[in-house]
Design a protein that fits this description.
Layout lengths: L1 E3 L30 H15 L14 E10 L4 E13 H14 L15 E13 L12 E7 L5 E6 L1 H7 L3 H11 L8 H5 L2 E13 H12 L1
Antiparallel strand pairs: 1-3, 2-3, 2-4, 4-7, 5-6, 5-7
Helix pairs in contact: 1-2
Amino acid sequence: MASGCCGTKKQKLNNSSSVPSCNGSSISNQMVALPEMCFFCFDVLYCHLYDLAPPKTPSFSNDAYPLFVTWAIGKDKRLRGCIGTFNAMNLQSGLREYAITSAFKDSRFSPVTRDEFPKLSVSVSILRHFEDGDDYLDWEVGVHGIRIEFINEKGNRRTATYLPEVASEQGWDQMQTIDSLLRKGGYKAAISNEVRRTIKLTRYQSEKITVSYQDYMNHWNSQRC
């Protein structure tokens, strides 16, 4: 199921995706995320906005990973949509799906428009190296993304996540990040140390590639030569 990754506008997404089932294959240090993945996301969005046939199958890897697609807008790169999945998906179909989902179905924002297209940038995050944390502080700001699972004040199980860059971009320490995630996940009561200690935390790392509209156009023009 889809999850929102960022909380910089409104923190009201309740994430409910299951913990990813990492397939036990050997961990490779080779980079998975490539600029071509971002160019493909732009292609997909353009075709959708202008009611064109979907772009052809890309040439990058089709291995399966959890992934997120983030759209930002303007010179200050304000968040415009960010949705992904913790379930491993084949990259080609996963990016095709979430390029659209993050642009049109992030409930914090209105759908992306044609007029906005030239002002966008897109980031692809490939999530890797999932580990169970010993407690809610068993992770490092700027290195790990975190996904927390907790029981809210009504006794319901909830989850929420931030990608690795969020805490650093917001200037948060570990405690501020955890408390923000609890609020993002819908926890409305007072947050105490007892509440924090009940959190089940999963940490992960991501490879992130970002491409601007100008980068995309330069790439597109180079393909015509």
